[in-house]
Write a structure and sequence with these properties.
The structure is a single chain. The protein is of the alpha/beta class and 208 residues long. It has eight helices and seven strands. It has a seven-stranded mixed β-sheet with strand order 2-1-3-4-5-6-7, covered by helices on one side. Helix 4 crosses helix 6 (168-175) and helix 4 packs across helix 7 (177-187). It is elongated and about 55 Å long.
Length: 208
C-alpha cells in the first residue's frame, strides 16, 4: 500500500515514529499531487491542506483522512470515504488516534499498514481529547481571570497533580489560541459550559 501524507513540518516531526512494512510506502509532501498523480496512491492523510479548496471527488473511493477538529463530517458534507482525525500540534504523538467516520470498512486496513492504533468516536466537534483539553484550558483561563494564581503556577500545579505532559497554558500555546477559542465557541452553541472565559476571549481578540 502507498499512502500519501500531506503534512507540515510540525506534523511530520510528530509522525517520525510511524513505520510501515517493506512492501508498503509512506510519501510525505506539503502539497497534494495533481489529479493524475492520485492514481499512484491507495490512501491519503490530508493534515496540512486547506479543506474548503479541495474537491474530494478526485480521490474516488480511496480512504481519505482529514485534519478537521471543529467541523464535523456532516457539516462539511463529505463523501463516505472521508474520515476525520485530530492533527493539531501534539495530538499526532498520541498512541491512539481518534477517528470519526461514516464508513469504517477501510480504516483498519490503513491503520494496520502504518502500525498505529485507532479508536472510532462520534462525529462531534472536538472529537474527545480536544474537547476535554480545551475545557481544561478554558477553566485555567477562568482561574487566571479571577486572579487565583499565575500562568506558571497553574501549569506547574497541573503537571505535578495530574502528570500531564504540559500545563493548560503551555497546551494552549502549543495548540494555538485560535484553535482552542473556535472549538469552545462551536461547543458553546449547544452547551453554555463551553463559553470561552473572558481572559481567553481577550487574548484571542488581541491576536486577531
Amino acid at each position: 500500500m502507498r499512502i500519501f501524507i500531506s503534512a507540515n513540518e510540525v506534523q511530520r516531526k510528530e509522525l517520525e515514529t510511524i513505520r510501515v512494512n517493506d512492501s508498503d510506502e509512506l510519501i510525505f509532501n506539503l502539497e497534494l499531487p495533481d489529479v493524475e498523480g492520485h492514481k499512484n496512491y491507495d490512501a491519503y492523510f490530508i493534515l496540512s491542506a486547506s479543506l474548503p479548496s479541495l474537491d474530494f471527488r478526485q480521490f474516488g473511493s480511496k480512504p481519505v483522512f482529514i485534519n478537521a477538529v471543529t467541523e464535523t463530517l456532516t457539516e462539511l458534507n463529505l463523501p463516505e470515504n472521508v474520515s476525520r482525525l485530530n492533527a493539531w500540534p501534539g495530538f499526532l504523538q498520541n498512541k491512539i488516534w481518534e477517528v470519526a467516520s461514516n464508513n469504517q470498512k477501510n480504516i483498519g486496513i490503513v491503520f494496520n499498514t502504518i502500525n498505529h492504533d485507532f479508536m472510532v468516536v462520534k462525529d462531534e466537534p472536538g472529537l474527545v481529547a480536544a474537547r476535554v483539553i480545551s475545557m481544561i484550558i478554558n477553566e485555567a483561563f477562568y482561574a487566571l481571570g479571577e486572579k487565583v494564581s499565575t500562568k506558571e503556577e497553574i501549569d506547574l500545579a497541573m503537571k505535578l497533580g495530574t502528570n500531564y505532559p504540559w500545563g493548560p497554558f503551555e497546551w494552549a500555546e502549543k495548540i494555538g489560541i485560535n484553535n482552542i477559542y473556535h472549538l469552545l465557541e462551536k461547543l458553546s452553541e449547544k452547551n453554555d459550559r463551553y463559553l470561552p472565559a473572558p481572559a481567553l476571549k481577550k487574548i484571542f481578540s488581541e491576536k486577531k
